[in-house]
């Protein structure tokens, strides 16, 4: 997308950690407080993100992020696809998903996996529209009722 640029970093990056805090607050509000998502927290630490993508506007303002976390067996997990509210509706999430998939493929991964929540119908619509197929919940989400997992082969 011509009005945006990407910077790749890792989960320890200050700007990525700031986005991570924003997403933590969002998810806490979504489920009625942090006490209702304690089982999700261990699998969602910014420090575990090997490759973080930050998207900047033409004015060099960070407007979106996502990350990739190694998952094993040739899989990489997509984490924290987030677009700041004023920048939604411009297909940034779709753009980021394509960039994540390309990056993952170029780095030798065979499949992307991800987890979202049943109530996040807009995220599910995005993922299914991009060819993701629902799979059995993988660890650590296998016993979490509200979690839904998806995968997409990259080759």
UniProtKB/TrEMBL annotation:
<dbReference type="InterPro" id="IPR050769">
    <property type="entry name" value="NAT_camello-type"/>
</dbReference>
<dbReference type="InterPro" id="IPR016181">
    <property type="entry name" value="Acyl_CoA_acyltransferase"/>
</dbReference>
<keyword id="KW-0808">Transferase</keyword>
<dbReference type="GO" id="GO:0008080">
    <property type="term" value="F:N-acetyltransferase activity"/>
</dbReference>
<protein>
    <submittedName>
        <fullName>GNAT family N-acetyltransferase</fullName>
    </submittedName>
</protein>
<dbReference type="Pfam" id="PF00583">
    <property type="entry name" value="Acetyltransf_1"/>
</dbReference>
<dbReference type="InterPro" id="IPR000182">
    <property type="entry name" value="GNAT_dom"/>
</dbReference>
<feature type="domain" description="N-acetyltransferase">
    <location>
        <begin position="9"/>
        <end position="155"/>
    </location>
</feature>
């Amino acid at each position: 997308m011509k009005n945006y640029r990407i910077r790749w970093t890792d989960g320890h990056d200050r700007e990525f950690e700031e986005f991570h805090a924003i997403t933590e607050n969002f998810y806490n509000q979504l489920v009625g407080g942090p006490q209702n998502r304690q089982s999700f927290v261990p699998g969602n630490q910014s420090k575990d993100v090997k490759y973080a993508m930050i998207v900047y506007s033409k004015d060099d303002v960070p407007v979106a992020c996502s990350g990739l976390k190694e998952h094993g067996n040739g899989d990489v997990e997509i984490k924290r696809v987030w677009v700041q509210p004023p920048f939604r509706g411009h297909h940034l999430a779709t753009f980021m998903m394509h960039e994540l998939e390309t990056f993952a493929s170029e780095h030798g991964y065979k499949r992307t996996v991800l987890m979202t929540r049943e109530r996040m119908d807009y995220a599910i619509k995005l993922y299914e529209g991009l060819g993701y197929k629902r799979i059995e919940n993988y660890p650590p989400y296998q016993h979490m009722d509200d979690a839904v997992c998806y995968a997409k082969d990259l080759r």
